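Sample entry (375 residues):
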Amino acid sequence: MEQEKLHSIALTCMTNFSLSTLRQLHERLGSATAIVEHRNNIGDVMPDMHPRLVEALKDMDEPMKRAEKELEFAQRYNILPLCLNDDRYPQRMKQCPDAPLVLFYRGSADLNAHHVINIIGTRHCTPYGQELIHRFCIDLRQLCPDVLIVSGLAYGIDICAHRNALANGFDTVGVLAHGLDDLYPARHKETARRMVTQGGLLTEYTTQTQPLPQNFIQRNRIVAGMSDACILVESAKKGGGLITAGIARSYNRDVFAFPGPVGAAASEVCNNLIRDNGAALITSARDLVLAMGWQAEAQVRQAKAQGIERDMFPQLTDEERCIVDVLQQNNDLQMNILVVKTGIPVASLTAILFEMEMKGIVKTMAGGVYHLLTI
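Predicted structure, serialized as tokens:
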């Protein structure tokens, strides 16, 4: 695993080619180590490889030296480099085509928590936006306490989300636009310190990386990709919140927005997204829990905590029961796999799964995967 970390970091340091190309190589060869081992005949692995990448891979001396220094820094400051093959790597992010080969993590939270949401928006939030987040976190704690809350540790909505998450007992992770040898903005250092023990700090960037404007746009894909749902509170035109919401939709993540007063600059983007079906309207934590299908899980959890024995699905048809049985054995299956395992024709299966989703029995996940809602 140490060798895989070293090679993942070294490849990350070679920034003259796209992450999507790295991911394609990783998928074909199975690891960063295999990419490095095949660097001298990489054209045989991927014939359409860009010549610049082929040449860059032939000389890995400097990237390897940089990677060794990064590992030394990580060990000294309790930073965990997470490679794609590491079970602790955010598995939701791993589904995305431009997922980083390595993420640097300092914290205590499970990045693969059962429920993960991000709360994002403008850096110039209003008292209205602050109150929305305050009330949302209080209510969410009562409805669904096992949520990991992600944001970007920036001014405005981000820091408000992190602080309210901490105040209500949620783990909260900040995704940074620079390395873990610094913190921007410096005014948020005390909040960041608390987050390390009740959440964490996460970045794809190596040390000595400056918080350049393009890095914030780049890091937004991690905020979106590692979450089940994106929640936009307030957003200015052309702001980072709008960009993150767009990325979330491209990853097939659920996107929600709080409406605001008509004509208010901070709410214009939210209102427009809702109007154009770019985001679902929510006005409370309850709206989110119901839309995500988490209410049924909460109810069953509560019933079991009270010692109540009951059948989760008492009124299933024979075909629905067949689907439930398959998903109980191996959850999170795509439609084509379900067709094979249940023997139900695809046209019928599509209609049945739709009904089951309306009943709160299954939920459609990213990539057309069906997830059985369990405890």
